[in-house]
């Protein structure tokens, strides 16, 4: 790989002319810029951080980096889970959190134009206040939407509405030489050559830096209802999942969770709403299902049908969350799983002893795969927690190190664990990542799953966009 | 035992409500109507009491428009077995308490029962005046215990655990009585598919109360609360300097 240039004091001065008061070097750089939410993949200090406010500023900074062959890593809110925003080759980090304006709505074409640093929560709330919905809803609501696009993040509602990719119509991108390009358009269909927009989505800042987005929105569903379905065991719980769609029901979200993690999360949230013992029967696993519709009459019919399906398939009972506070409470437990896990993790040498995997498997393989994963964890003496989007087969599996283990031993054990369970996911027809992306953390597993030829194709695309290999080096398709 | 629970339908208080400049009133359209949270605690406490002593009936009553039937229906799925909506020209606490008191007499007559305990939430989450429960007790000329977090049936009536700013009072009171309920240690239960479907079949009674006392409160104007001033960021070289700066500012503002 090419030898990278250094950020010299002269270059820093040039950055300061571009973004006065928003350039940080050395000790001025906050430790946050050295890692994302998964510190186990390693920390790395950038040589300079530039908080950009406009496309032109990003372009000017990237142009200087291009001329001097300096690595550039784009960073949103830093909530990623695979190290994608960590500057492992040093160089410059361009922060986009100050590019946080919702620019305009076009309600004739149902699109909204935003800057990439807008937080998902802010966009979602702004849409709701206008009777609209931006359907993608990744668990981390304080992620930047630009980061969501760069990782093709999914979320709970992907079950019905699809992932972030399905809502990106157009974007402004700063290319590796500092040129400004526009990909896509507000139109809803296209058969116009290679889709550059779609190449950018999920490319994790390795092909260009997104500086403006045009996103599709939809009219907000009028009514929503959530059902909690307790089952005695995971097997009957998961085997119910395909039955909803088979019966023409289209849940907005469909999550499975085991009792242990529900209890942990309820303790963390401070509110216990999931039934544990129903008329003497102990619940072992739950489905959480949300439906949306035009009015309550329509929803009540759906609710009855869905409940009948679940009860016939072994649900102990069906609990209904039919008011906004109740819906909020049943989802609060689900949305806090990661925080609940993180509240109890151990830290060693500034690193959190936590690793995760985000595989996606065919629906009928969820139950046997989860069982397999637990068996491997048990064999290796690792604490394993799992939950996931049952509706689309996307599983989140966490391994947690205890307070005795050293960082090296934990890493070795976690690697051995993942070396076992990733190939099993591929074997049953799954993929490496459903929504967290590859970054540097999952590169090895992507390469194994995709094979040499596919990885060469990806690297070829990378080289077309970024001949000097300065954009987020060492991520997605090649190791540094 | 015959139990009555008074409920109010209020806008969902988790939604940030703004003023509508056209009407100069709060824009409530964006907030789903729900049962007042304190009333859901009252119903849950009543339901637990019913489960503890057995052989009891819970009736729910609400002064409000036709739409309030939706609120009553949700109560019928989580413990109540009868429901009444009361139509009356009641716009403040005095007229609402009066309408409720008159409704109590009408329901007692219609059902051929006498209520032993009347539960109210301690206040509503929209107006939060916290007066209807005590005014109702006054109108009915029965004792009232406020701010309950627990209740128990005893031979002489009930034993009520009242939350105070310092701790708790245990108060014994004879029935009939009114109690108002604050947040207990537990959460209100969720309806199940079976209880919801059963609730749908229960007819909700309608009462017209034509002769309520005139409201004593008139709304003169609506205004938004003033916006809070942005905070000051203190970011001195050292922690000690930052502390000194903060203390100095508090001293200058005469809050120390």
TrEMBL record, chain A:
Residues 42-220 form the FAD-binding PCMH-type domain. One of its GO terms (molecular function) is FAD binding. The keyword Transferase does not apply. It comes from the Bacteria. Its cofactor is FAD. It holds the Pfam family FAD_binding_4. PROSITE patterns: FAD_PCMH (PS51387). This is Glycolate oxidase. It comes from Frisingicoccus caecimuris.
Automatic annotation (TrEMBL), chain B:
One of its GO terms (molecular function) is electron transfer activity. SMART domains: ETF (SM00893). It holds the Pfam family ETF. It comes from the Bacteria. SUPFAM superfamilies: Adenine nucleotide alpha hydrolases-like. InterPro entries: ETF_a/b_N, ETF_b, ETF_beta_N, Rossmann-like_a/b/a_fold. Residues 23-216 form the Electron transfer flavoprotein alpha/beta-subunit N-terminal domain. This is Electron transfer flavoprotein small subunit. It comes from Frisingicoccus caecimuris.
């Amino acid at each position: 790989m090419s030898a990278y240039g250094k950020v010299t004091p002269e270059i820093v001065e040039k950055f300061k002319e571009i973004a006065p008061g928003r350039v940080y070097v050395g000790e001025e750089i906050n430790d946050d810029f050295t890692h994302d939410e998964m510190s186990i993949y390693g920390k790395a200090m950038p040589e300079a951080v530039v908080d950009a406010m406009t496309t032109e500023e990003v372009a000017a900074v990237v142009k200087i980096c291009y001329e001097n062959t300096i690595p550039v890593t784009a960073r949103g809110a830093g909530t990623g889970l695979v190290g994608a925003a960590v500057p492992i080759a040093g160089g410059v980090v361009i922060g986009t959190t100050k590019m946080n304006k919702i620019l305009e709505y076009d309600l004739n074409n149902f699109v909204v134009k935003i800057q990439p640093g807008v937080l998902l929560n802010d966009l979602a709330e702004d849409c709701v206040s206008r009777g609209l919905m931006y359907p993608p809803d990744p668990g981390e609501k304080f992620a930047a939407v630009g980061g969501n696009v760069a990782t093709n993040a999914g979320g709970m509602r992907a079950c019905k509405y699809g992932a972030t990719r399905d809502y990106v119509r157009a974007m402004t991108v700063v290319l590796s030489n500092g040129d400004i390009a526009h990909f896509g358009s507000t139109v809803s269909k296209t058969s116009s050559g290679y889709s550059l927009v779609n190449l950018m989505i999920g490319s994790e800042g390795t092909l260009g830096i997104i500086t403006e987005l045009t996103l599709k929105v939809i009219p907000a569903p009028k009514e929503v209802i959530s059902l909690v379905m307790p089952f005695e065991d995971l097997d009957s719980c998961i085997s119910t999942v395909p039955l909803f769609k088979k019966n023409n029901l289209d849940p907005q979200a469909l999550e499975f969770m085991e009792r242990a993690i529900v209890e942990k999360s309820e303790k963390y949230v401070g509110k216990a709403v999931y039934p544990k013992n129903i008329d003497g029967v102990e619940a072992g696993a739950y489905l959480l299902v949300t439906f949306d519709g035009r009015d309550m009459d329509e929803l009540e019919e759906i609710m009855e049908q869905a409940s009948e399906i679940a009860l016939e398939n072994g649900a102990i009972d069906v609990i209904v969350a039919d008011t906004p506070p109740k819906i909020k409470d049943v989802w609060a437990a689900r949305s806090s799983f990661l925080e609940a896990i993180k509240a109890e993790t151990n830290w060693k040498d500034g690193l959190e002893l936590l690793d995760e995997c985000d595989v996606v498997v065919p629906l009928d393989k969820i139950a046997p795969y989860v069982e397999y994963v637990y068996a491997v964890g048990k064999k290796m003496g690792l604490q394993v927690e799992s939950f996931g989007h049952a509706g689309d087969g996307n599983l989140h599996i966490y391994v947690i190190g205890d307070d005795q283990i050293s960082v090296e031993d934990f890493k070795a054990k976690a690697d051995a664990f993942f070396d076992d369970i990733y190939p099993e996911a591929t074997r049953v027809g799954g993929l490496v990542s459903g929504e967290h992306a590859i970054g540097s953390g999952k590169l090895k597993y992507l390469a194994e799953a995709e094979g040499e030829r596919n990885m060469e194709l990806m690297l070829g695309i990378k080289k077309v966009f970024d001949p000097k290999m300065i954009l987020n080096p060492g991520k997605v398709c090649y190791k540094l | 035992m015959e139990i009555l629970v008074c409920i109010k339908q209020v806008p969902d208080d988790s939604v940030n409500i703004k003023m509508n400049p056209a009407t100069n009133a709060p824009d409530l359209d964006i907030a789903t109507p729900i049962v007042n949270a304190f009333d859901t605690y009252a119903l849950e406490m009543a339901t637990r009491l019913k489960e503890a002593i057995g052989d009891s009936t819970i009736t729910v009553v609400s002064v409000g428009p036709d739409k309030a039937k939706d609120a009553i229906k949700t109560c019928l799925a989580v413990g109540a077995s009868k429901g009444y909506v009361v139509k009356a020209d009641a716009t403040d606490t005095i007229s609402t308490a009066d309408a409720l008191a008159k409704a109590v007499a009408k329901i007692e007559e219609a059902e051929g029962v006498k209520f032993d305990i009347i539960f109210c939430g301690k206040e509503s989450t929209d107006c939060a005046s916290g007066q209807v429960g005590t005014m109702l007790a006054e109108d009915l000329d029965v004792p009232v215990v406020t701010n309950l977090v627990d209740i128990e049936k005893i031979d002489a009536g009930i034993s009520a655990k009242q939350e105070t700013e310092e701790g708790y009072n245990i108060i014994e009171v004879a029935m009939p009585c009114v109690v108002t309920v604050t947040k207990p240690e537990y959460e209100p239960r969720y309806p199940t598919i079976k209880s919801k479907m059963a609730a749908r079949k229960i007819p909700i009674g309608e009462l017209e109360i034509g002769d309520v006392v005139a409201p004593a409160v008139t709304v003169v104007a609506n205004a938004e609360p003033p916006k809070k001033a942005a905070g000051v960021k203190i970011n001195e070289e050292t922690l000690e300097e930052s502390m000194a700066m903060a203390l100095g500012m508090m001293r200058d503002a005469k809050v120390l």
